Write the structure tokens for this entry.
Amino acid sequence: MRLSEIFHIVYINMIGNKFRLLLTTLGIIVGTITIILVIAIGKGGEREAAKQFSNLSADTVYVNIDYGAIGQNKDMSTIQKLTPEIVEKIMEESTSLQGLYLRASTFKEVAHKAQKQSVTMVGVTQGYGEISNILLEQGADFSSSDFEDGERVATIGSKIAEKLFGADDPIGNYIKIGEFRYKIVGLLKRSEDGLQGMDSDSSIFIPYSAMVKDKFIDQYVTTQAVGKALNLNNVERAKNEIKSTLEYYMDDAHAYSVSDAGTRIEAATASATTMKLLLVSVAIIVFVVGGIGIMNVMFVTVKERTKEIGILKALGAKEKDILLQFLIEAFCIGIFSGVIGVALSYFMILLMSYTNIPVYPTLEGKIIATLFATATSTIFGFYPAYKASMLMPVKALAEE
């Protein structure tokens, strides 16, 4: 048989059984949509992580409370706090750090005229902007005298500025924190970065010395140190030096852990990979179920068309012609399912945009999903096609 004749027979059979074709393809269509969504969610997660990690250097190190080491029932107010003096000692004894600063965070109600907002207030020592890559949109950063004298000055995140001042310029205005008035000297550039333990867009920064002077640091406020190694090769040495200094100057050194940004990046990547594999596994299961459906339908089709197969063989069709005919039919079902699945995926991704799940559709995802659909349909259609090709002409013609 000529290939054109085989395609013509396949076309006639598919057009003549539209409803069965639709039911046959449902599983593969769902699988195609699932694969596209999985890849779109994976890409969306990668882009979101890339955006968040864009302001995070792999040579950054952190000194945090280790809740696993101290236990959940530990009274946090009894934990010895990090202080500017300890930070200075760490820098004096370290040969691997280019900078280290102290920060303490707490929630406070901030007021400007009739506007009030509960925000994260962060007390910092010198070097916070350079080490954590916190940039100014306008205004100025704290001066050395601001840090030394505990001046009541503040830099404010973009989201807080919008809520308190709207379209007005916040620079030079005053906000009230507790009983004290703080002058805004700088507006921070929007970063969308919450991976360093804080969201700078929704925070207000003041000198750590002002935080101490105005007694904003109570027994429940925890302190944290953030530093930067000279380079990536010095990260482990810097961590060891910090641990050594903490153990010498602090009784509660065991309550603090020293980690680096590279470890955080690896952990986040590993979590994203695990989630992606889980979603891919679900998509493969959907494809397998759809493939089994195609196999069952094709077995029924072969049964119904047994006499037709007998006639074709009696007219001279070879086993490979029959095999190729049913394989092409399975292949076409896969292509049809893939195209329909890709078309429907646009609506599904549109619906996903109304959720908090980041999605980023790609041409790569659509191509992969279509290939999966075609391959699944063809693979699961092979055995029914093989059975059809092996039918004996005499038995096939005698079939009612």
In short: The longest strand covers residues 97-112. The first helix runs from residue 3 to 16.
